[in-house]
Design a protein that fits this description.
- The complex is a heterodimer of chains A (351) and B (222).
- Chain A contains six helices and ten strands; from the N terminus they run αββββββββββααααα.
- Chain A is an alpha+beta fold.
- Chain A folds into two domains: 110 residues, Sandwich (Immunoglobulin-like), CATH 2.60.40; 191 residues, no CATH class.
- In chain A, the strands form two sheets. A six-stranded mixed beta sheet of chain A has the order 2-9-8-4-5-10, with no helix packed on it. In chain A, strands 1-3-7-6 form a four-stranded antiparallel beta sheet, with no helix packed on it.
- The longest helix of chain A has 41 residues.
- The relative contact order of chain A is 0.13.
- By secondary structure, chain B is mainly alpha-helical.
- Helix content of chain B is 86%, strand content 0%.
- In chain B, α3 packs parallel to α7.
- The interface between A and B is medium-sized, with 30 and 30 residues.
Chain lengths: 351, 222
């Protein structure tokens, strides 16, 4: 193997191995998995029992806060540690909060000097019918001192450890799009120049991206089982992806059904461009118009700060590069097979 | 020398004239539409408007496959050589697209009218906004004709045209049909538009017809 010409294969494999090892081995940040109560009355004193995930309550000095949606918070007056995962927090809630509403959104925050923040959103603080005056007061949130940066993936409720699937499921889709775009470019080149090699390139890239698409559906399906509860849900994106897979399967059938090589190449190139154009409204437009379980649909762009953070990106981008390069490698083997096939056929015809 | 519009119009009128001379061919399809609506009337005692709406769009899909397939197979080989020297490929695909649009739309209107006649006893069929529905039919038949025209030209070279056309164009037309079913259902239940769905159909028309216009050139040369 000549490293000078094949450096990209090594790079692809390295990126992929890095994505697998780093993606599976790096731990998650501490998080709050469960709390005993979601609705609290202002003015009362509450004992919140908290179950943490990847936390070490017993080993470190944790402190707990309840934050209002504004800029106010109250510190837990008691932090009874049961074990590393369980603790009971005691809060003396002030009797009033700003604004006229009866309900205020709040967030439970657990902070440790070593591991940083763990938050639990979706708390509600209700105003009782009769005010119970007490001495507790909301205090303003001071300048937050960030904990030392640690290489750990963020904790998200519900998806928890499956957040690692971002590196495989999402990255393989991205790689598939890149490969399909390469196939599109070579289809256009074939129509313009008529070089049969361009057709080999286009068809090999289309086939490997079809394989990538199937793997993408499979990994997504496993992910859906654990975060949404079923292998296949009635989600727009899933159905649209199924349809675009069908479009590219039709590409294979079209190629198989035409005998004449030139005609096959030409028709397949035309259909490939047509299919790519048809896929754009399917995957780019329709899911954004309809409500979807996927992040980044129903109007928001994906990959916002809520979905990705820098630690995820450090594995996610190499995963895309690695998968894309490996796909290119497989496609290259396909192109070589086709070239050899053609040569063999020509030799047989000449004999 | 005629200009582009005259050429396209000439091509469409030739198609329509041959269609008229071989009336029995398209009459068969239109009769099929009426028979379906009659069967639905006799076979189902009281069908609600929403299921009828879905059947309506599926039938439009079937109709458009048949019409699109006939659009190119009708032209004989000698005739296409003749056309090749007279007009450019853009004219031909544009004319076919518009011709398909017209025949699919007529089929849809016939189905709509016959279902209104047969099902007039049902209240839900009389209350929906028929003008809006016809506009929706206009847009969606243009959408379907733009997605079917190029694949129907592609399958000409293969030996199993009908099946292959289905394989090539059904995946693309599934979401279009789904959007139509949703829009039609919304017309029936809320009596109003969902503008974004209509714009989606129009954008599909734009993308598909532009791609068809550019790509048909390469198919036509061979």
């Amino acid at each position: 193997m000549n490293i000078k010409n094949n450096w990209w294969k090594y790079l692809g494999v390295l990126c992929f191995i890095y994505a697998i090892t780093a993606g599976l081995l790096i731990p998650l940040k501490p998080g709050i998995a469960e709390i005993s109560e979601h609705s609290l009355y202002s003015g009362s004193s509450v004992d919140l029992s908290v179950r943490g995930y990847n936390t070490s309550f017993a080993e470190e000095n944790y402190s707990g806060y309840i934050r209002l949606s504004g800029s106010q918070q109250i510190k837990a007056s008691g932090f009874n540690v049961l074990d590393n995962q369980n603790a009971i927090l005691h809060f003396e809630l002030p009797h009033s909060f700003e604004g006229q509403e009866k309900v205020s959104e709040a967030t439970l925050v657990i902070n440790s000097p070593l591991h940083g923040y763990a938050i639990y959103p979706n708390l509600r603080i209700l105003k009782p019918e009769t005010d119970i005056p007490n001495n507790a007061q909301w205090e303003n949130i001071l300048e937050v001192t960030e904990a030392d940066w640690k290489f750990a993936f963020p904790y998200r409720n519900i998806i928890v450890e499956t957040i690692r699937n971002t590196f495989y499921h999402v990255a393989i889709w991205m790689a598939m799009f890149v490969l399909l775009t390469i196939a599109l470019v070579y289809s256009i080149l074939y129509l313009r120049k008529g070089n049969p090699v361009h057709d080999h390139v286009a068809s090999s890239f289309t086939y490997i991206s079809l394989v990538f698409g199937v793997i993408g559906v499979a990994t997504g399906s496993v992910w859906a089982r654990f975060s949404w509860g079923a292998f296949w849900t009635n989600d727009v994106k899933l159905n649209m992806v199924a349809i675009s897979m069908m479009i590219y399967l039709a590409y294979g059938i079209l190629r198989a059904s035409i005998d004449d090589n030139d005609k096959k190449a030409k028709t397949a190139a035309i259909y490939n461009i047509f299919a790519y154009a048809a896929m754009i409204p399917l995957i780019m437009i329709i899911p954004r118009l309809t409500a979807s379980l996927h992040p980044g649909n129903g109007g928001n762009p994906a990959f916002g700060t809520d979905d990705m953070d820098n630690t995820l990106r450090m594995v996610f981008y190499p995963a895309i590069i690695g998968l894309g390069l490996i796909g290119g490698w497989i496609a290259q083997i396909g192109i070589r097979i086709k070239k050899i096939d053609e040569k063999l056929i020509n030799r047989a015809l000449n004999d | 020398m005629k200009n582009d519009f005259e050429k396209i119009w000439a091509l469409i009128s030739v198609d329509l004239k041959t269609e008229y001379r071989n009336r029995y061919d398209s009459y068969g399809l239109y009769l099929f539409v009426m028979v379906v609506s009659y069967i639905l009337y006799k076979g189902t005692e009281s069908m609600d408007a929403f299921s009828y709406n879905s059947i309506f769009w599926v039938l439009i899909l079937v109709l458009s496959t048949n019409f699109a397939l006939r659009a190119f197979t009708k032209t004989k080989e000698e005739e296409s050589y003749f056309l090749y020297h007279l007009v450019s490929s853009y004219h031909i695909i544009f004319a076919k697209l518009l011709y398909n649009w017209i025949v699919i739309f007529i089929g849809g209107v016939i189905f709509l009218l016959s279902s209104i006649i047969f099902h007039s006893s049902l209240e839900s069929f009389m209350t929906f906004p028929i003008v809006l529905f016809i506009i929706l039919l206009l847009v969606s038949s243009l959408c379907l004709s733009s997605t079917f025209s190029l694949p129907s030209a592609l399958v000409l070279t293969s030996n199993n045209k009908g099946t292959l056309l289905g394989i090539l164009s059904f995946p693309i037309s599934i979401p279009i049909t789904l959007v139509c079913i949703n829009l039609g259902g919304e017309l029936i239940s809320k009596q109003t538009w969902n503008m974004s769905g209509l714009l989606l159909l129009l954008s599909v028309v734009l993308i598909m017809s532009t791609v068809s216009l550019f790509l048909f050139k390469y198919n036509w040369q061979s």
